[in-house]
Design a protein that fits this description.
The structure is a single chain. By secondary structure, the chain is an all-alpha fold. It has a domain of about 60 residues: Orthogonal Bundle (434 Repressor (Amino-terminal Domain)). The chain is built from 5 helices and no strands. α1 crosses α3 and α2 crosses α3. It is globular, with a radius of gyration of 13 Å.
């Protein structure tokens, strides 16, 4: 998906989440956060500074490079380890 360069990080997260058909509540839960937190991130009311949370969001949204979320292409690519996310409703293997 090609995102506009003028979108903020929160707007990028919202566009990617909606394009994948993921509810705000589901994405927030996958990141271990509340729905209100994600709503504030998407609306720009709250800044997302945590690298760990950026990685969790990217993995949940199946994004391979953090630049897709941050819009910053400068520097080396920040690869996102994709795979199965931990969720309390899923049994341990």
């Amino acid at each position: 998906m090609d995102l506009s360069a003028d979108l903020s990080t929160g707007e990028r997260i919202r566009v990617l989440r909606e394009s994948r058909g993921i509810s705000r509540a589901s994405l927030a839960q996958l990141c271990g956060r509340g729905t209100d937190w994600l709503k504030k991130i998407e609306s720009g009311e709250r800044e997302l500074r945590s690298h760990t949370l950026l990685l969790r969001l990217a993995a949940a949204l199946q994004v391979h490079d953090l630049a897709a979320l941050t819009g910053r292409d400068s520097g080396p690519a920040a690869s996102v380890p994709l795979g199965r996310l931990a969720h309390p409703a899923m049994p341990a293997i």
